[in-house]
């Protein structure tokens, strides 16, 4: 007769200790779950750990496993703020702020470790926590704050100085590479160059879209990071077209998309939106991994913000109005400067909005930031120290730039 | 429910499976628990395929690579895991919160070194959720530790040439700041 035993309550172990060692595959499953700072330190454990952690395959898997395991503690947002409005007024360099949680309650400050001659930095975007900044001119940097390394990109010399270009920054997951796209329109001729991190060089890419010969002028319209959705970067494009003999000009808007892997451009439709107020700003963004459009318009008593979402990528009919938020008593635009704007969606849905408002007609303008839930329209004020948030993007720890040419540590 | 009635070997949740460890202890566990151990499930399925006539299984499944101590802990963990899953069948978020809470409590009673034994058992039994949990637990137990602690923990020795390790340390000197005492 076999004597059976119920599973016992486990007790703290006080037993003979025999040397047990884990097989390599399990040891490395544990390594994969470590944060970046520990990984950098544990490269010193032994040669096999060092080469495992330095392996580009590990570095790219690191990103995908963080997505799958949904490490909420590790991801957050990076907020780029204007110079000299940081907490420390003596700060010379600009500040990027990382909000480590969704509520923006625990915020840490990252000082940009390089400086631009012009003194101004513009935020191109963040991909998996690798940030791209430039100064509207030839200087451009990739920066990984989680391993404290940055890299100055080779300059794109053929660009005419002070010509306003539009940029986008993306991750090509198929080849585990980072790319910067730079577009500027020489009136009706687009000049496009793509920088690939692994090649460390800029290559010319053709637009490959033929447009009506009546188009006289193009303008790419965005100060915000170009949304990266379904493997594509997106920009709002305004085309100014001749209507016909003696009929003047008309402009129309469309979405220009760039497939980061195949490096092909495409056009995407905008939703059919009735023209609202006279003063209006349309801006592309992303909402829970879908392409989205925010339309801000001036209203008699404030600003209205409508959000549209393209439910099925590339399908015109799938554009759907998500919500309309009205920001009472806000001032939308003063002499061409937009004062109330949507900055972007956070990962689980709420929209970060900058509001400039007046309590009474005579009182001074006040600036504040709120998170609005697009489903419940519940609004929550958040405190971001510093007055002027320029851009926001998602952030996570990453090991990119661990190795490579011309990478500097600080 | 309908899945069970369609299955070729009808089983009810009260069916027990007997597991025998390397130190000759015998555990009688519910089938639902045993089926989370993929190694056991495989053995059980093979047995049933070879022995179609027997309606209920009386098989004793030997586990020559698992001792009774880690198995008892794994059974407790597995039962709780199934219970939390059943209690929150329609709410994934709630389930995750309950699971996290249980796992935190669980770890209070486990020494980091004990985790090694549990991982080996979970790995042999191919109990994926437990393996993932224990790997996460080890990662969080060692993340603030020194390089020396980690070597000792995994039974590893430095194989760097003189000077190599110092160079590596210098490269990210800041990552050695704020490390726990061993």
**Number of helical segments with 4 or more residues of chain B:** 9
- Rg of chain A, nearest Å: 24 Å
Helix content of chain B: 55-70%
Number of domains of chain B: 2
Q: What would you call the shape of chain B?
A: elongated
For the biggest β-sheet of chain B, the strand order reads: 2-1-3
| Element-level helix/strand string of chain B | HEEHHEHHHHHH
In quaternary terms, these chains amount to: heterodimer
Structural class of chain A comes to: mainly beta
Mean pLDDT of chain B: 85
Protein name (chain A): F-box domain-containing protein
InterPro entries (chain A): F-box-assoc_dom_typ1 (IPR006527), F-box-assoc_interact_dom (IPR017451), F-box-like_dom_sf (IPR036047), F-box_dom (IPR001810), SCF_F-box_component (IPR050796)
Domain F-box (chain A): 16-62
Pfam family, one (chain A): F-box
Give a short overview.
The complex is a heterodimer of chains A (410) and B (182). In chain A, 9% of the residues lie in helices and 42% in strands.
Key structural traits:
heterodimer; A: 410 residues; mainly beta; five-stranded antiparallel β-sheet; 4 helices; 9% helix; 42% strand; B: 182 residues; mainly alpha; 2 domains; 8% strand; elongated; disordered N terminus; SCF_F-box_component (chain A); F-box domain-containing protein (chain A)
Model description:
- The complex is a heterodimer of chains A (410) and B (182).
- Chain A has helices at residues 24-31, 36-42, 47-54, 56-69, and strands at residues 76-81, 95-99, 107-111, 122-127, 130-134, 140-144, 149-152, 166-172, 177-186, 189-196, 201-204, 215-220, 228-229, 232-242, 249-259, 264-268, 280-287, 290-299, 302-310, 319-328, 333-334, 337-338, 341-345, 351-357, 366-372, 379-382, 389-395, 407-409.
- Chain A is mainly β.
- Chain A has a domain at 276-377.
- In chain A, the strands form 7 sheets. A 5-stranded antiparallel sheet of chain A has the order 4-5-6-7-28, with no helix packed on it.
- In chain A, strand 13 and strand 14 form a beta hairpin.
- The longest helix of chain A is centred in the N-terminal third of the chain and has 14 residues, at 56-69.
- Chain A is globular and about 85 Å long.
- Mean pLDDT of chain A is 80; it is low at 1-17 and 85-91.
- Chain B has 2 domains: 2-142, Potassium Channel Kv1.1, Chain A (2-Layer Sandwich), CATH 3.30.710.10; 147-176, no CATH class.
- Chain B has a 3-stranded mixed sheet with strand order 2-1-3.
- In chain B, a hairpin with a 4-residue loop joins strand 1 (16-21) and strand 2.
- In chain B, helix 4 crosses helix 6 (112-125).
């Amino acid at each position: 007769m076999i004597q059976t035993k119920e599973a016992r309550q486990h007790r703290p172990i006080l037993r003979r200790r025999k040397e047990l060692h884990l097989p390599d595959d399990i040891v490395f499953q544990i390594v994969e779950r470590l944060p970046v700072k520990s990984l950098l330190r544990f490269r010193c454990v032994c040669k096999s750990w060092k080469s495992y952690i330095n392996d580009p395959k590990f570095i790219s898997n690191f990103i995908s496993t963080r997505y799958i395991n949904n490490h909420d503690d590790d991801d957050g947002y990076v907020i780029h703020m204007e110079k000299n409005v940081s907490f420390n007024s003596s700060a010379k360099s600009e500040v990027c702020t990382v909000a480590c949680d969704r509520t923006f309650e625990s915020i840490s400050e990252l000082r940009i470790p390089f400086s631009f001659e012009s003194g101004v930095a513009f935020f191109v975007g963040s991909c998996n926590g690798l940030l791209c900044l430039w100064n509207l001119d030839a200087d451009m940097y990739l920066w990984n704050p989680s391993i404290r390394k940055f890299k100055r990109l080779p300059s794109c010399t053929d660009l005419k100085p002070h010509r306003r270009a539009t940029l986008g920054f993306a991750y090509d997951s198929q080849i585990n590479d980072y790319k910067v796209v730079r577009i500027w329109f020489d009136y009706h001729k687009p000049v496009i160059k793509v920088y690939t991190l692994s090649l460390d060089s800029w290559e010319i890419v053709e637009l490959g879209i033929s447009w009506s010969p009546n188009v006289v002028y193009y303008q790419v319209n965005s100060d915000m990071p170009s949304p990266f959705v379904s493997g594509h970067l997106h920009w709002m494009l305004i085309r100014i077209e001749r209507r016909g003999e003696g009929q003047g000009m008309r402009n129309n808007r469309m979405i220009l998309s760039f497939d980061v892997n195949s490096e092909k451009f495409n056009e995407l439709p905008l939703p059919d939106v009735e023209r609202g107020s006279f003063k209006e700003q349309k801006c592309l963004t992303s909402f829970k991994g879908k392409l989205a459009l925010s339309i801000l318009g001036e209203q008699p008593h404030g600003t209205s913000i409508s959000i549209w979402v393209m439910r099925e990528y590339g399908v015109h009919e799938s554009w759907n109005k998500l919500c309309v938020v009205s920001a009472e008593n806000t001032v939308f635009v003063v002499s061409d400067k937009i004062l109330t704007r949507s900055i972007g969606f956070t990962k689980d849905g709420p929209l970060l909005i900058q509001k400039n408002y007046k309590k009474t007609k005579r009182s001074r303008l006040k600036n504040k930031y709120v998170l609005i839930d697009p489903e419940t329209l519940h609004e929550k004020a958040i405190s971001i120290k510093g007055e002027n948030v320029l851009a926001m993007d998602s952030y996570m720890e990453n090991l990119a730039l661990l190795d490579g040419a011309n990478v500097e540590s600080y | 429910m309908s899945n069970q009635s369609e299955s070729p070997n009808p089983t009810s949740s009260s069916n027990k499976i007997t597991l025998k460890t390397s130190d000759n202890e015998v555990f009688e566990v519910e089938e639902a628990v045993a089926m989370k151990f993929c190694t056991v499930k495989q053995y059980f399925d093979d047995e049933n395929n070879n022995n179609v006539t027997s309606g209920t299984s009386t098989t004793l499944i030997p586990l020559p690579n698992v001792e009774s101590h880690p198995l008892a802990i794994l059974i407790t963990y597995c039962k709780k895991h199934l219970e939390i899953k059943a209690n929150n069948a329609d709410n994934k978020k709630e389930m995750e919160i309950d699971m996290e809470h249980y796992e935190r409590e669980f770890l209070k009673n486990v020494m980091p070194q004990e985790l090694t034994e549990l991982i080996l058992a979970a790995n042999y039994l191919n109990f994926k959720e437990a393996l993932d949990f224990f790997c996460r637990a080890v990662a969080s137990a060692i993340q603030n530790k020194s390089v020396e602690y980690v070597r000792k923990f995994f039974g590893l020795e430095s194989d760097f040439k003189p000077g190599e390790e110092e160079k590596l340390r210098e490269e990210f000197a800041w990552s050695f700041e704020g490390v726990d005492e061993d």
